[in-house]
Design goal:
Layout lengths: L1 H7 L1 H6 L5 H11 L5 E2 L2 E2 L1 H24 L12 H14 L13 H10 L23 H8 L7
Length: 154
């Protein structure tokens, strides 16, 4: 559900990007699926688990992207589009782990606290860094997107 929420909100985010900590907190909360709420309150353990699992998944997507040979999956049952969407969202969340403020060991807990109090830290959230154009095939996200027939000629 989170992945679908992120994908469905991309146009809105592109047209009205968050400009401060309060905007970022509101965006993170907006992206949380309805199933993570009880009586309008975000369920802490479910949210933290969902985000932390995305961070873990990024490592698997890195290994997968590095293993793709010739732009195709060896498993004919793989859904390249779905894999690409999931990998992109994981790649956007995982770098937050490198800048966790002192006292945090969980990206999910940090983002949950950030939603409750956008002033929890002045650090703006990082994003996925675009690979060097000299050899994008060395990048796992490039390989995953290529396997999904993403058109890089824009």
């Amino acid at each position: 559900e989170l992945i679908n929420n992120v994908i469905s909100q991309l146009d809105a985010i592109a047209n009205d990007p968050p400009v401060d900590e309060a905007d970022i907190a509101a965006l993170i909360e907006l992206l949380a699926p309805d199933s993570l709420y009880t009586n309008g309150v975000l369920k802490e353990s479910a949210f933290v688990s969902m985000i932390d699992n995305l961070v873990l998944a990024d490592g698997y997507f890195q290994a997968l992207g590095d293993s793709i040979v010739g732009g195709e999956y060896s498993d004919p049952n793989a859904n390249p589009g779905e894999i690409a969407q999931n990998a992109l969202v994981a790649a956007l969340v995982a770098p937050i782990e490198a800048i966790l403020p002192v006292g945090y060991t969980s990206v999910g807990q940090y983002l949950y606290d950030y939603i409750l109090d956008p002033g929890v830290t002045p650090t703006l959230l990082p994003g996925y860094e675009v690979p060097d154009e000299a050899d994008p095939a060395d990048d796992y996200i490039f390989n995953i997107l290529a396997a999904a027939n993403f058109d890089f000629n824009y």
